[in-house]
Model the fold of this input.
Amino acid sequence: MAMDAVARDTVFALRRQIAKIEGTLSERLEAPAGSGSDADRMLVRRSGVAESHGLLATGADHFDAALNGGLPKAALTELHGAETRDAGTVAGFALALACLLLKKTETPAPILWVGTTEIFREAGFPYARGLEAGFGIAPESLLYAEAPKTTDALWIAEEGAGLTALSAVVLELRGNPERLDLTATRRLHRRAQMAGRPVFLLRQAALAEPTAAPVRLLVAPAPATPRNTMAGPLDGTIGRPGIAVTIGKSRATQPGQFTLEWNPDERTFLDRRHAGAIHQRPWDIQKRAKDHVAVVPLSSSGTDPAAASRPVLAFPSPRPSPAGDQPSRPQRPAHRRA
Done:
């Protein structure tokens, strides 16, 4: 208990120093009353430039509650992907956050997507036709800026973060470049605070480093659940995409893990653990019924139409050759001579 108290006092002392450096005064820096897990979850609620512009709620109640209301709008937010093959999930999560941001604005402004040539070749660009259908973002509202070097990408993102004519700035980089240090992220965070616009830093195949971002989220793909119908989950189908989000760093809460689902129709996130969805684990697939053809009701005669489809195979089964048949001679390629 004594060690926990010393550690808590050290954490609050560090938060006080961070608040002085950033120029944001804290409402409550003393340790919360009581002890235990409930008291440890209640850390610090800060006020300042970032919270003066409000928070971006994702729609997943438990995830927003863990972030004390949502992600800060006027701040730098890090989105990490462990591997390059997860770049699509990280980019989709960023587009979903941009969609939530545009929903709450009467006159939505364009979004600037900045990246290096390396990351665009490895991860590609967002699909134009899928922007409107999946996120409600018009293709002409997403502006791209491709830079040959990391230094150029940081300069474009910093200049774009200071423009009020943009709704948000997305900076996508790969790995851990030397130019992306604490000073560079502090400049991006400060520009976002002054303009009142969010800056999303997408770091593909990167390791966690000290940055000025108040929130760091680790994003990874999660298995999709079956489609939900009025009769329940439809077995053997693929439902909404799942996203595993881990709060790696936050100045207002402790780390936590969540599995979110993006609803492209209502354009909001859902918490899978509390949305009534059934997890589709690999070892549960063996427990399903062997025949998935009969997913429709029986005909009026009462016969099962799937019964006739069971013996149908892609290739006929081998039959034994008659006794008088002789095996054919071995075939040789036509371009070869005996």
Observations:
- The radius of gyration is 27 Å.
